[in-house]
Design goal:
This protein is an all-alpha fold and 114 residues long. The chain has helices spanning 18-43, 47-109.
Length: 114
């Protein structure tokens, strides 16, 4: 009996994009904490009761947003650098091929000496 492979959606995601998704989810969690803190602080009139919400939820939310954006930035820069390296390798190969063809044309133009 032949085994049939089950297709799972996350196998189609390129390896470098996982960190982008993780960063975006982290940012979303940070924004959710900010919204929670805002809702709780808006419901309290006493400032001394607002401070725990700001310290526990708002600062943590800001931290999560900063970490998530940093992860996204590093992941996109890494993916961009891989693309740039591949393009540079291609340009170098083309330039080397052009140089070799130019040298072969120059060698053919020189008169042969006995």
């Amino acid at each position: 009996m032949a085994r049939r492979r089950i297709s799972v959606p996350w196998r189609r995601i390129k390896p470098g994009t996982w960190s982008v998704y993780v960063g975006l989810i982290t940012c979303a969690g940070g924004f959710a904490l900010l919204a929670l803190a805002w809702g709780k602080v808006a419901g309290e009139l006493n400032v001394s009761l607002q401070v725990p919400y700001i310290v526990s939820a708002a600062f943590t939310g800001l931290g999560l947003i900063m970490v998530g954006l940093t992860v996204v930035l590093v992941a996109t820069n890494r993916a961009g650098s891989e693309t740039r390296e591949a393009l540079l390798r291609e340009i170098i190969t083309e330039l080397q091929a052009a140089r070799l063809s130019k040298e072969s044309v120059e060698d053919a133009d020189e008169p042969m000496q006995p």
